[in-house]
Amino acid sequence: MRFPFSLYTSLAKAFIQNARQGKINFPLVLMLEPTHRCNLDCVGCDRIRLYDQEHTRDLSLEECLAAVKDAGAPVVTITGGEPTLYKDLKPLVSELLRQKKQIYLCSNGILTESFIEDFKPSSRLTLNIHLDGLEETHDRIANKPGTFKKAISTIKKAKQKGFRVSTNTSVFKNTDDKELDELFTLLKSLHVNGILISPAFSYERVENDIFLSKQEAADKFNKMDFKKFPFMSSPLYLDFLTGKRHLRCTPWGNPTRNPLGWKSPCYLITDTYYTSYAEMMEKTDWNRYEAGLDPRCKDCMVHSGFEATVQRIAFSNPKDLLRLLLWNLRKS
After folding, report:
1. Going from the N-terminus, what domains does the chain have, and what CATH number goes with each?
2. Residue 299, Cβ neighbours under 10 Å: how many?
3. Whole-prediction pTM value?
4. What is the per-residue pLDDT across 17-49, written as a single tens digit (0 to 9) for each?
């Protein structure tokens, strides 16, 4: 199977429980940012620019666990900032595993070795390492020489220890198709469990014309051979990336909790923060963002907004459901 069986059971349980309660808008993934601190200043990221004047404190362990309880999502993505800088990362992951949550720990790989040396692998825990190209490209985007080599070394050591490892690649306007093929060939040779790919989001605070329009994204993704590598992206989402189908966003599918509060309206757009999950769900105009009416949504195709849509619509179309089932049964 493409993912651990426990992930399927966790997602199915969440759908059944929310259906019984009559809930329509509910999250599948909690984006938990316990810290805004980072040891990189990547070209396409807005986190340093967004929070450089805030000097926010980290969330406490208790605040992190309260957010997990409030959202009730079966999957928790621990991100940031760089989560390996968070002092309570290990007790946080331990408690989430005890609660039988599915965990994706997103890291640039620089400090991840200390985590894998002290932690035991679990089928519910996936290390997700960000790589935006081969060495020269990735180090340029990360603004730090040696980042690529360190990330690859971390992947190798994590796999040797028995960890599940996936990677995440953001595609920009100047991303070279051949280089991506070489990168994914390397990652496949390292036996990563999955590769996540999507167009980079066009953050307003990031200068330069480096982001793809929807048409440019479709042109670029149509050149890729998605059967060649172990992509984690669902076939319905890949249809969306290549311009073969339209998907509406599911902005509430991946709510974000960070040191400033509950981020609204979504993981990628910051308009305001709410003090509670319930207030964020009640006061955000979900219809506006689901329909893509905000100008900032115009070219967004990021998986955080649309893979949740795939899960929502699959059961309404037998052909789509069968396609997803067959895709999930294949390892790659």
Report:
1. 5-329 (3.20.20)
2. 18
3. 0.93
4. 988 999 889 999 999 999 988 877 766 566 555
